[in-house]
Amino acid sequence: MTSIYDVLKRPIITEKSNYQNTKLNQVAFEVASEATKAMIKDAVELMFDVTVERVNVTNVPAKRTRRWQSRRVKVRRSGYKKAIVTLTEGQNVDVFEGVK
Q1: Is the pLDDT of residue 40 over 90?
Q2: pTM for the full model?
């Protein structure tokens, strides 16, 4: 990894992450595969100007799915690394503002 800006790839916006953002004060990101918890914490604090309380990391495994036109054609979606970042009370990330 060349810089701290390469750690976070994209925010993960789902129904579960929306619930975590509103009720539990947590934010979910897809991160680089070689990123560590300390690197993720530094990147979130630097980019969004918030205080991170805790970082949980999980590797989401690759999955096989089927094409909608033909049930026989199988496609493999690649796995990724996901980080769930818990922020201190009263702080939020602007990426998730307006998502309800």
Answers
A1: yes
A2: 0.84
